[in-house]
Amino acid sequence: MSHPAFSAATTAEEVASVFADRIQGKNVLITGTSINGIGFEAARVLAKYANLVVITGYNSERLKLSQDAIKKDFPTANIRPLTLDLRSLTSVREAAAEVSAYHEPLHVLIHNAYAATAEHQLTEDKLESQMAVGQIGPFLLTKLLALKLLAAATGSYIPRVVYVSSMGHALGAGIDLNTVEKGDPEKYAMMGRHCEVKSANILSAIELSKRSKGKINGYSLHPGAVVTNIVQKEDTKEALQEFGLLGPDGLPSTKIEWKTIPQAAATIVAAAFTPELDAKPGAYLVDCVVASNKSAPHSSDPETAAKLWTVTEGIIGEEFDFE
């Protein structure tokens, strides 16, 4: 279900080159595009070929740095910055309204942004922060941009929503539907919540594909273990050490096979543009290839996916339809 040459060592640039004709003319929005992150690298390589790449972030200064860096590599690239703070449903609505006013349709929406928090935190909307950024905000954004995505559909093209999940989802027990909104401050553990959020991503891709009835396809993926800004944050070091990602010295564990940022971003590009995936809606990818058999049962259960969808609709106070 993918290019035969793709592997764990494949880079995002290599994937984009293979699918250059398919990327050409497409409009893509990707969240979480700070420099030194996999979202930035995916945006950078797509910008070489795409008609439009919308990059997002809550910090306008860092967003400008990302825009300038991409333009330095590809001066003719059409990069459009969008201020978006997924911790705030108001910000999500404002950003979605801005995108809805674009004259271009939206071919691919990539949910890459993530914010790990060492301590239990509630947002201004009284939502647990990790779940707000990783699941609830993206759910609302997808709902509000559904018409933009549908506008990109043709007889030969199905719009896509891509969720950057993690193999870490399998290390947890799945998502607790009773604590999606606020979490459990008494039992909160950063990496435990991480596993729940990443499970939610996989379930969302499955349910989105099912409910759209072929109008929009959702995909999720494991990018690989990679040293990004999240791994380097001082306040999350202890939790990452407990999870085995960092050693006692605070450096990346030698027991883990790490990817470079270009390698980790490759599966994002593959999920967004591999044409054969049209026949596999809801698929989970690892190393640029379909690996749905590696998704834990608790994160691929259709009943749980349907319940999570309903719970999330209740949290945002709106039903999600595709009309």
TrEMBL record:
<dbReference type="InterPro" id="IPR036291">
    <property type="entry name" value="NAD(P)-bd_dom_sf"/>
</dbReference>
<dbReference type="GO" id="GO:0016491">
    <property type="term" value="F:oxidoreductase activity"/>
</dbReference>
<keyword id="KW-0560">Oxidoreductase</keyword>
<comment type="similarity">
    <text>Belongs to the short-chain dehydrogenases/reductases (SDR) family.</text>
</comment>
<protein>
    <submittedName>
        <fullName>NAD-P-binding protein</fullName>
    </submittedName>
</protein>
<dbReference type="Pfam" id="PF00106">
    <property type="entry name" value="adh_short"/>
</dbReference>
<dbReference type="InterPro" id="IPR002347">
    <property type="entry name" value="SDR_fam"/>
</dbReference>
